[in-house]
Amino acid sequence: MSSIIQMHRLSKVYSLGESQVHALRSVDLTIHQGEFVAIMGPSGSGKSTLMNIIGCLDQPTAGEYHLQGQRVDRMRRSELADIRAATIGFVFQGFNLLSRTSALENVEIPTQYLRRRKLTESPRSRAIEALQRVGLQDRMHHVPSQLSGGQQQRVAIARSLVNQPSLLLADEPTGNLDSTTSEEIMDVFHNLNAQGITVVMVTHEQDIAQHAKRILVVRDGIIVSDTAVVK
Amino acid sequence: MKFLLTTLRTALRNILRNRMRTLLTMLGIIIGVAAVIIMVSVGKGAEADINQRIGALGSNVLMVRPGGSSSHGVRLGADSWQSLKLKDIDALKKHCTQIAAVSGLVRANGQFVANGTNWPTNMEGANVEYFEIRQLKLSSGSFFTERDVRTSRKVAVIGATIAQEVFGDSDPVGQQFRFGKQPMTVVGVLASRGQSGMGGDQDDIVIAPITTVFFRIAGDSHLNQIIASANSREVMAAAQEEMTTVLRKEHKVRGENDDFSIRNQSDILEAATSMSRTLTMLLSAIAAVSLLVGGIGIMNIMLVSVTERTREIGIRMALGARGIDILLQFLIEAVVLCSLGGLAGIALALSACKVLEQTVGMNTILDITTILFAFGFSAMVGVFFGFYPARKAAGLNPIDALRYE
Ligand SMILES: Nc1ncnc2c1ncn2[C@@H]1O[C@H](COP(=O)(O)OP(=O)(O)O)[C@@H](O)[C@H]1O
Ligand SMILES: [Mg+2]
Predict the structure, then answer these.
(1) B381: Cβ contacts below 8 Å, ≥ 6 apart
(2) Ligand 1 and A14: CB distance under 6 A
């Protein structure tokens, strides 16, 4: 199995005037293609910081980060943007859909930022296909305010899939959802993972984490435990 | 291309989302663009009016008036007002190489009587060259001839107003009339020339051979004016110099104390043109300032928009948008906003010019270059004032933008 994420002595320090916050302290982490990883830990332990760096939204202050064999920790903003467009799908706790914009158009957004890789199908048909994958083909023309939380999150997942990424990142995807809906979202993740997409998600709910195949626990910027889930 | 189209659609949607705000923001641009176009159109109209007056006068026309110019502050004796004589015309004809035609001019007031109608008017006595110099055209009949001038024949060419007022629908050519006590015959009717620049009726006129007016009507022998046309506009100055030399010799003038003055009508009108041009430029500049103020309004609203949509910017960046994508999105939005304002401004200017023409009778010239220029300028305003907010948006950190509440 080849590794998709490889981090070596990765640190992130936030400077707030005089004081410094060590959000990540010399983290070593390898995640292989096709894994389903849950990251747990108390609030403020550095989970989101780690996710943002994995997702190329943020840069580490020290250490090395290889994504699909490419060293990304020294890349320019525009190069990181291209990687986000082509390789990474993001799902957020707060859905982050554009309001007053239909589900279909929301899902289409990433297609206009895909430059490196040309997909054969048209943006429209890719967006429709992505919505079908999350079971929302009959809600395509609804705007976010007309959709339930679970449906909105599924639109967000469809949006993260539309450029056919190899890595799906989800920061507390079920944080705003009730348990039944959370289970539905986990089913979607299961299916995607079964189709070969690497999934990394942050959660603080033990039963949600149990859906993953591997659980990391972060505390004070350090990975304190790394266990495989036994089913 | 595809990207531009998508961005354009997004921009249009965002603009349409806040209709009221969009309209208020665009108002500055609308008024600015309209003001620029109206000012330029009115200015061009005024300039065309003046140019038409030059054309009406004949562009190469030089006028000699009796009496020296008062530029030296010396008032000359009363007799200097009678300094121009018929023989001056012969001398000018003989010695000047740069003038194409020259004619004397005497005026006499009187009553034009015919058909039982009394019509008070002006009679001008002139040489045949006068028609050429003033570029007069006939609507019927003919001009009087050299022979008529030599023999002081009692014939006249009349203007369209008199023809209409006195003779009505019947053809005046060949008809008899009296001017003062003198019975005369109409030989020609001038084509209408309408109002003069000063508002006078140019068609209320009778033109007779200069000798006829001298010997049969006015009874004295000094000219009110000599009018000449230079060979071309370029040799005006040379022609003027020649005429001065000839007339000085003829009048035995010593030094600079001329008893005549030569005016170059097109110079005066050129000065008027340049004055109107300066005024137009000034007014257009003021209009352009209002466009600038409109641009600042655009910048303001774009800055507000960037702040309001910080989260959207964060989302787009997380989904793979580069800084340049965000920059273009906001820039295009500003340009679309300004261009729409520009279009509305053009429409406003078009109707305003119509109104000005129909109510005040102001001549306005609205050409496509002005419109294109104003439209291009408003788009430029969009680029200029949209750039700062757009750059601000593009420079946002994706994480901070995503976290923005
Ligand atoms: N932009 C920032 N500036 C300063 N400190 C930050 C910033 N982002 C996160 N932190 C700090 O870094 C630590 C880790 O934060 P985070 O990764 O968001 O934790 P988690 O997601 O596990 O709750 C926290 O102490 C937080 O206060
Ligand atoms: Mg967090």
Answers:
(1) B29, B32, B291, B292, B294, B295, B298, B338
(2) yes
A26 CA to middle of ligand 2, Å?
A: 19
A vs B, Cβ pairs < 8 A, gives 61
Q: Is the CB of A43 under 6 A from ligand 1?
A: yes
Assigned token pair, B396: 């946002």
Residue range B214-235: average pLDDT? 84
Query: In angstroms, what separates the C-alpha of A117 from chain B's closest C-alpha?
Result: 13
Average pLDDT of each block of 10 consecutive residues along chain A (231 residues)?
Answer: 92 93 96 97 96 96 96 94 96 94 95 81 93 94 96 97 96 94 95 96 95 97 95 74
User: Within a domain: residue A83?
Assistant: yes
For residue A58, being part of any structural domain is answered with: no
Q: Can you give the pLDDT at residue A120?
A: 81
- Non-local CB neighbours of B255 within 8 Å, separated by 6+ positions: none
pLDDT at B80: 61
Task: Give residue B219's pLDDT band: very low, low, confident or very high (50, 70, 90).
Answer: confident
How far is Cα of residue A145 from the mean position of the Cα atoms in its chain? 23
Picking from B346, B349, B353, B347, the residue whose alpha carbon sits closest to that of residue B377 is B346
Q: Is residue A67 part of a domain?
A: no
A interface with B, Cβ–Cβ < 8 A, is: 52, 55, 57-58, 77-78, 81-82, 84-86, 90, 92, 96, 98, 100, 109-110, 112-114, 159, 163
- Region of A172 please: left (phi>0), alpha (psi -120 to 50) or beta: left
Whether residue B311 lies within 8 A of chain A, CB to CB, comes out as: yes
| Tens-digit pLDDT profile for residues B330-343 | 999 999 999 999 99
Cα A13 to middle of ligand 1, angstroms: 10
Distance B226 CA to ligand 2 centre (A): 98
* Single-letter amino acid, residue B37: I
Residue A186 lies in a domain: yes
Give the long-range contacts of residues B9-12, CB within 8 A, separation 24 or more. B10/B329, B10/B333, B11/B329, B11/B332, B11/B333, B11/B336, B12/B336
- How many structural domains compose chain A? 1
Q: What is the pLDDT of residues B58-110, one digit of tens each?
A: 668 888 888 765 545 455 554 567 778 888 888 888 888 888 899 999 988 88
Contact at CB, B325 and A113, closer than 8 angstroms: yes
- In this predicted structure, the answer to whether residue B52 has a pLDDT above a threshold of 70 is yes
Q: Inform me whether the C-beta atom of residue B317 falls under 8 Å from chain A C-beta atoms.
A: yes
CATH number at residue A161: 3.40.50.300
CA-angle at A15, arms to A11 and A18, nearest 5°: 135
- Per-residue pLDDT, A43: 95
**What ipTM goes with this model?**
0.96
Taking an 8 Å cut-off on Cβ atoms, the answer to whether B319 and A77 are in contact is: no
Identify the domain containing residue A178 by its residue range. 34-48+76-228
Q: How confident is the model at residue B1 (pLDDT cuts 50, 70, 90)?
A: low
Q: Which helix (H) or strand (E) holds A224?
A: strand A222-228
Q: Does the pLDDT value for residue B145 go beyond 60? A: yes
Give yes or no for residue A221 CB within 6 A of ligand 1: no
